[in-house]
Write a structure and sequence with these properties.
five-stranded antiparallel sheet; homotrimer; globular; alpha+beta; 140 residues
Chain lengths: 140, 140, 140
């Protein structure tokens, strides 16, 4: 349960619902792994949090995404006794794993993209697993 | 179309909408593949079903997720003549593929996590493809 | 930012919101890479677009998915000044990466499945990165 043959990033969230830009931390982990090129798996081992990629330039964007996901939760009676079913729902929608290209020792993202840890039931201390998957093969 | 160089898990769903915990079946498939460490691809070859990861301890959680996704479907006129457009919509939202870490011959998940086959147009007999992707490389 | 050791597919979208079937273009890219078997990463480097898999046989299905996602956007005040926050929200929900099996030099999908580029803020000229991840190992 400790991220095995990879690195682990600790993310401290500070609100109930929050998208946290973790691009720099993931790049640090890639350095720790000595990984320069290929494909990396980012994995969220929690059930009320998830991962996504979106614009990192304007914090209003990821704030809008966080509030938008919250507003999408239907107004219904959930059964889960802990009262955080809507956090589980949003985590299941976004999913726990991201597979991303790596080049030159860093995540190779689109111009405006960053990686976000999506907290739906914070504030908490969370983990993000970083696992090398492969070195790219093939021409092109 | 038969899962190629991997294992295949058959999932028999018993309701129109249902999240089925398939963690044990996927671990059995890993044993069948002789895979002990690395990263595995789980793939759903259907267009009205999907895969996700969430809490497996309390069945109310995945029941809430199933009902919550259903309640999120907008009340609108769909054109698809088969009448199951909302199932396609939910399948597209959750997506067909999950990439998961493997260690010690089993899925390496968070403490509370399990893998769920998400049925949106059942009951049916469904397939889930299990494909080894890599052995983890790198230090850490 | 140019797709590194892989192929790149250009997708010209023709509407604000649109799901475009790119299965044939991805298969062409696999040929260009000389990739015959294994697992491929499809990656969308944009923040108002995403990727998914669903039924390609009936265009009404992916049209319904596009309109359904649009109808799910909550009626709320977004802060992002460019006015396209709802496109960012849908892109984050669907996610930028798909991992798909390859066999016989083509995507190995379910009978009814195709790969879709999901435009949420078009029309634009978009890119889709195609990266070989691995050759399948293991028995089965």
């Amino acid at each position: 349960m400790n991220g095995g043959a990879g690195e682990q990033v600790t993310v401290r969230t500070s609100a109930v619902e929050q998208l946290v830009d973790v691009t720099a931390e993931v790049n640090d982990a890639l350095r720790g792994l000595g990984m320069t090129e290929g494909v990396v798996l980012l994995y969220c081992p929690h059930t009320t949090a998830a991962l996504t990629v979106n614009e990192s330039a304007d914090p209003d964007v990821y704030d809008d995404i966080s509030r938008g996901l919250s507003a999408m939760v239907p107004n219904m009676r959930f059964r889960h006794a802990e009262g955080n079913a809507s956090a589980h729902l949003r985590a299941a929608m976004l999913g726990p794993s991201l597979l991303l290209p790596v080049q030159g020792g860093r995540l190779e993202l689109g111009t405006w993209q960053g990686v976000f840890f999506c907290e739906f039931d914070g504030p908490r201390s969370r983990q993000l697993w970083v696992r090398p998957v492969s070195t790219v093969s093939g021409a092109g």
